[in-house]
Amino acid sequence: MNATELLTVPCTKHSTFYADVIKGLSAPQKYLDSKYFYDATGDRLFQEIMRCEDYYPTRCEMDILSNQSAAISNVLGRHCRSFDVIELGAGDATKSIHLLQQLQQQHRDYTYYPIDISSNVIDLLEHTLPVEVPGLSIQGLNGEYMDMLLLAKDLSPKNKVVLFMGANIGNFTPDEALQFCRTLRAHLQPGDLLLTGFDLKKHPQVILNAYNDRQGITRAFNLNLLHRINRELGADFNTQQFDHYPMYDPSTGACKSYLVSKTTQQVHIAEDVVIGFRENELIYMEISQKYSLEETDHLAFASGFTPVARFFDRKKWFADCLWKA
Ligand code: AVJ
């Protein structure tokens, strides 16, 4: 596409969503960015995934937060005299609320800064959380993680306890996770704390089943991104011509999801772009990296943190790891 065309095309073509989709589907190994899973339908499907029997990570981390928040807040208090709590990608805060309630009961004087890219999420939290946690001081920050971390530093001089839960770190490859943790460390002060949720390596079948649930919700979740491209970018994906193929490699801990083109086919996007698929050609959709405990420690040290504590669910399938900057 030349510069003149860029100036005359309709507005969907100026969106980063459009640019990212075209870039990903034009690459030799086609891919789509998993951050685009979460439109309104994707949010709803992800809620369903979190409730479904085969998907264990949410229940595991809920087990940790609902049963060990007292222990967690004691450790926080031991390592940091006074702090604010920042949550990266707060969502509906159903897990962190247990910790917030506990800190409230221990009469800790803190402000909770949930950071989320969705302004709806922030508005909702600011309305609902003070009802569920009476007396809570909350200041939502709507924007990118690192920008909002800097803003929170300006808003209050206190040390920060940063929550990065939900195994969201798994959506990075190990290299990307290292880069992310280094950048995060650079945005923190010595003495700040970071609590990260890691999904741990375990029986490979258990992991594979979590991304290949029997109800087909994860399949629908992946195919929804094609539907979203149809809806928002005027494309004509026939989703019946794609299979969902998750795979887990226990030797690397990488759980990857692909869509497979069942036939040779062409897809049109925004009227003028044509993407060709060969039979069995893949679209790489998402990574959900699994960690050993040694690997979490290694990541901490390699990014300038010191591991200080770990909290596990009953089955030891998941770990919330506390690191000190
Ligand atoms: C939100 C990134 C933690 O990787 O387990 C769930 C997303 N994808 N099922 C994960 C997801 C398919 C989830 N995270």
From TrEMBL:
The GO biological-process annotations, alphabetized, read as: methylation
Entry-linked Pfam families: Methyltransf_33
Keywords, alphabetical: Methyltransferase, Transferase
Q: Which GO terms describe its molecular function?
A: methyltransferase activity
> Record's InterPro entries?
EgtD_Methyltrsf_superfamily, MeTrfase_dom, MeTrfase_EgtD-like, SAM-dependent_MTases_sf
Recorded hits in Gene3D superfamilies, A to Z, give: Vaccinia Virus protein VP39
Q: Which domain of life is it from?
A: Bacteria
Signal peptide positions are none
Does the keyword section mention Nucleotide-binding?
no
Q: Where is the Histidine-specific methyltransferase SAM-dependent domain?
A: 18-324
Task: Tell me if DNA damage is a UniProt keyword of this record.
Answer: no
Q: What is this protein called?
A: L-histidine N(Alpha)-methyltransferase
User: Which source organism does the UniProt entry give?
Assistant: Deminuibacter soli
